[in-house]
Design goal:
Low-confidence stretches of chain B: 568-574
CATH class of the largest domain in chain B: Alpha Beta
Largest interface: A-B, 21 and 27 residues
Strand content of chain A: 15-25%
Order of helices and strands of chain A: EHEHEHEHEHH
Number of helices of chain B: 19
Oligomer: heterodimer
CATH topology of chain A: Rossmann fold
Largest sheet of chain B: 6 strands, antiparallel
Number of domains of chain A: 1
Helix content of chain A: 40-55%
Number of strands of chain A: 5
Number of domains of chain B: 5
Structural class of chain A: alpha/beta
Shape of chain A: globular
CATH architecture of chain A: 3-Layer(aba) Sandwich
Shape of chain B: rod-shaped
Chain lengths: ~130, ~625
């Protein structure tokens, strides 16, 4: 069975692409278009994994990660930064603040689901991923 | 004196014959007296002997001589008398009182013989015998004059200094050695000196000059000392030519005047003893106002206390140094305004003790320029930061739509929404290729902007270069195989450590391998690594050799220019951004290495990257 994945992303096209790829891989998605809404949704819905853009209105990705990591219950939940920031150091900064992974935009559609699932327990991975 | 003979004797007597009243009034004055003393008979008659002939200080002696003549009937003395022109003559005088019939003194008759030359010869002989040898051995020029002011001894040095044969100077007055314009004053001074002789020096601080026989003047310093001898008191002058010293001192002054900075010399009490023109201009005080004034006058009041301490400290441990650099130091003008200064101090040892020369520079403009520079730098820094932000922002903004383009092209090609026909697939691949090309361009432009900022953010780390090349080759091998090419690796067996920016090296090597594969249709591409020594430094050489068409010499020159993709025959699908080689070379240079090409049409190309190992 798939995972429940929260996507926090303010760019509608990126949001749709990620949703589409993850749902195609058999996962359920929850969507928030800014950091504040994302944090609220995370606390309400308890997703299995969070994908988060870094540059967003209201509350950016770093602040989202910081807020959530303050709750002990949230420490084990995997968080992935998906961002168009690609300057050297961006990845290290994201990992340092509490993200488990950093995927830069543009994403590789063929590998994306696999990259995300690497952070999920095997039972939540899609059939294709489980096979490989 | 009634008969003619008597009159004739009076007239032609070779000695001066003078008849004078008991009070000294001249009654008769013969032609020889006119000759010796310079006054005509008419001029002398009726005037007092004392006024005419007796030098000051000699009057008393004269009266004593007259008394002894009156007592003894005749008296003979040697005396000094003054001529009309002020020069002194040595006179042998016989005085006889002439009495009236009643036995009272009527007048004195004096017969005076000028023995000046005789006296000079006597004195000269005396001095020569007594001091001649001694004075030859002193370095100074020595001239001794007798009471008459006549030169009676000249040592060799003096003869040389003034350009006279020594014998010629003997008997002349001292004044011949002085320029005309000083003579009268000197004569008076000399008379004064004989009045109260003591050793002293002349000329220090005075403009005193000597005159050579050839008319040339030269600055001198003179020490005078009285010399008491059997022939009376004489004066010894030790004369030193100060031309050299004055020249040096003048040069020093000229130097000070020509210095671009204000120069002020102060003594250890802080009194200004010298100031150049620039100092006058800078501080607004006249030179006269500055000289002898405490230097404090030029220092704003609030700095004066500390300044004393600094000054005393400097005199204790003097060395040339600059004060005020990096510290706010101010000068005070006459009008009360202040200005920032920089000062260099140098100690100077002089005859008057240690003094300090300060070179003072008004740094108002400099401070202004510094301020402007600081502002400009800040502006530039801000501009650089703004530029970085701009590129980072641009990259972010371009990547976001590309994410959708590449992403949905991907989902379509993965046939997630549904199956595609062949043409749709082909066209979508074209979209994907174009989108990836656009992404490469964005990446390369971003890299280039960082290099253009001239602050490439390199992060050196040490790693095994062999290992890295193996990994990169493995990544790109599929592309080679796809074109039917062999990707060969020639690596040393041992690990090769290098300390450099891993990401930059990666980028260059990927670019070289990808280019080699891209432009080679048959054969093989070979990646080599070897260690070399160049300029005494150990370096690594990474070369990429291909069996492609090769590059003409003309094209080689512009190959590393941005967007310089060459129209290679048979290769219409030149992928890549056109920035790769340009960027690679720039990166190589930023890493302290270089990227070179050797190629010829028909025989392939070899790109060689040379990097220092650490």
């Amino acid at each position: 069975m798939g995972a429940r994945i929260l996507i926090i992303e303010d760019d509608p096209a990126s949001m749709e692409l990620v949703r589409y790829l993850l749902e195609a891989a058999g996962h359920t998605t929850l969507c928030a278009v800014d950091g504040g809404a994302g944090v609220r949704l995370a606390l309400d819905e308890q997703p299995d994994l969070i994908l988060c853009d870094l540059q967003m209105p209201v509350m950016n990705g770093y602040q989202v990660a910081q807020s959530l990591r303050e709750f002990p219950a949230w420490r084990p939940v995997p968080m992935i930064a998906v961002t168009a920031f690609s300057m050297p150091g961006d990845r290290d900064r994201a990992l340092a603040i509490g993200f488990n992974e950093h995927i830069s935009k543009p994403i590789s559609p063929a590998q994306f689901a696999e990259q995300v699932e690497a952070l999920l327990p095997p039972r939540m991975r899609s059939a294709a991923a489980r096979k490989s | 004196m009634a008969d003619a003979f008597t009159a004739e004797v009076w007239e032609h007597n070779p000695d001066a014959l003078i008849a004078y009243a008991p009070d000294g009034t001249v009654l008769h004055w013969n032609p020889a007296a006119e000759l010796i003393f310079g006054y005509a008979n008419a001029e002398a008659r009726g005037r007092s002997l004392y006024d005419l002939l007796v030098p000051p200080g000699e009057a008393e002696q004269e009266r004593i001589n007259q008394a002894s003549a009156l007592r003894d009937g005749i008296a003979v003395h040697e005396v000094v008398r003054r001529r009309k022109d002020g020069t002194l003559v040595h006179v042998n005088v016989s005085t006889r009182p002439v009495l009236r019939p009643d036995g009272q003194l009527d007048y004195f008759l004096a017969s005076k013989r000028d023995e000046t030359q005789l006296k000079i010869r006597r004195d000269a002989n005396l001095l020569q015998a007594q001091f001649g040898a001694l004075l030859e051995s002193t370095p100074d020029a020595i001239v001794i004059v007798n009471m008459l002011g006549r030169i009676v001894l000249v040592n060799t040095q003096a003869g040389l200094l003034f350009g006279y044969p020594r014998a010629e100077l003997l008997g002349l007055t001292m004044e011949v050695l002085l320029p005309e314009r000083f003579r009268t004053a000197h004569l008076q001074d000399r008379a004064g000196y004989f009045g109260k002789p003591r050793a002293r020096s002349m000329g220090e601080g005075l403009e005193l000059y000597g005159l050579r026989r050839n008319g040339e003047e030269f600055p001198v310093e003179v020490s005078l000392s009285p010399l008491r001898t059997e022939g009376g008191t004489m004066v010894m002058s030790a004369i030193r030519d100060t031309t050299g010293r004055r020249k040096a001192s003048q040069q020093f002054r000229d130097l000070l005047e020509s210095a671009p900075d204000a120069m002020i010399i102060v003594d250890k009490h802080g009194q200004i003893i010298l100031a150049n023109h620039q100092a006058v201009v800078l501080f607004g005080w006249t030179r006269d106002e500055l000289l002898g004034t405490p230097i404090d006058m030029l220092v704003p009041e609030r700095f004066r206390g500390p300044h004393h301490g600094h000054r005393d400290g400097f005199f204790d441990q003097p060395r040339t140094r600059v004060v005020g650099a990096g510290r706010e130091l101010y000068g005070l003008r006459k009008d009360g305004s202040e200005f920032p200064v920089e000062i260099s101090l140098s100690p100077i040892e002089t005859e008057r003790g240690r003094v300090v020369c300060s070179a003072i520079r008004d740094v108002t403009d400099l401070r202004h320029i510094e301020q402007t520079l600081r502002e400009k730098n800040l502006e530039l820094e801000n501009a650089a930061i703004a530029k970085d932000r701009f590129f980072a922002g641009m990259s972010h903004e371009l990547r976001t739509p590309l994410n959708a383009v590449i992403g949905f092209t991907g989902t379509l090609l993965m046939e997630l929404p549904g199956p595609l026909n062949t043409e749709q697939t082909r066209q979508l691949h074209l979209v994907e290729t174009a989108a990836r090309h656009l992404l490469s361009l964005i990446n390369d432009l971003l890299d280039l902007s960082k290099l253009d900022a001239d602050r490439p953010a390199l992060h050196p780390e040490t790693f095994n270069c062999c290992q890295m090349l193996k990994e990169l080759a493995a990544t790109l091998e599929p592309q080679a195989l796809k074109k039917g090419l062999t990707l060969r690796l020639e690596l040393p067996a041992q690990p090769r450590a290098i300390r450099t920016d891993r990401r930059a090296l990666n980028q260059i090597v990927i670019n070289l391998i990808a280019n080699a594969i891209k432009f080679t249709d048959h054969g093989e591409v070979t990646l080599c690594l070897s260690a070399i020594e160049r300029d005494g430094r150990s370096q690594l050489e990474i070369s990429m050799r291909d069996t492609g068409p090769g590059i003409s010499e003309h094209d080689q020159t512009r190959l590393f220019q941005p967007f310089a993709q060459l129209g290679v025959v048979g290769l219409h699908t030149a992928e890549g951004t056109g920035l790769g080689l340009h960027l690679s070379r720039r990166l190589a240079e930023a890493m302290g290495g270089q990227l070179a090409l050797s190629s010829a049409p028909g025989s392939g190309s070899t790109f060689t990257l040379t990097l220092p190992t650490g």
